[in-house]
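One chain is below:
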Amino acid sequence: MEPKELYGLPLERFTEERNALVKGLRKGGRREEATEVSNLRKPSVAAWAVNQLVRTQRRDVASLFEAGDALREAQSQLLSGRGEADALRDAVEAERVAVDQLTQRARGLLSSEGHELTVATLQRVSETLNAAALDEDLRAQVSDGCLVRELHHVGLGRLVPSRPGARGKSASKKRAALPDKKGAEPKQTRSARSAQTAQARNAEAEARRRAERTARELKTAQSRRDRAADEFRRTEKALHDAEATLAGAQEAAAGAIRELEELRRARDRG
């Protein structure tokens, strides 16, 4: 087994398989590798879920990364004066949908493996997916499916050009908007820049509100599921108790019948 394969195993097997791998490497005289493997950390539940998504849902993960790239590009376009606020809102929504779809896949993976489905865990999964979509450095940590801890990202992503030469064009626009000889920036440029900044802030605020609303809806759904699970457990216990009572009654009835038959036989003999 390769060390990376440990992160594809069921979470409860990680430590046991890691220790077995270390033992095998030491037995084979590969002590440096054994030391490296022994230092591998068991992933958190949320990180484990993301690792499984990366390994099993490659197409959806690729779509998430594409949505993240499109969102960063839309933001860059808007702030450089070449884009529209509607385009940014559409990109925010597309990235949110991609995150939500994968989070639902993670819910199924966690449930099938017997892990407790908590709002906090699913929120960490969503935050990690969002971080990987919007930040190239964080994406690199996720892409190999060996994440140890969940990730966090603040904002809509770094402003980076997506095409060669975009940085130069942006710089040219900035030079064109420099203050004149009197030190005053043209009023039209200031107004355009203020409008663009306001649009970007509104789009980000709307995205944040949607994220908060989704988190509340997720929490509500989780509470309903927990209540339904509790009710099911109570019903199941009542059924079990009823079955036990029935079994006891049947056994008592059988005993009474046997006793009656013995009395009849004794009477017939007398």
Notes: The radius of gyration is 31 Å. The longest helix spans residues 187-269.
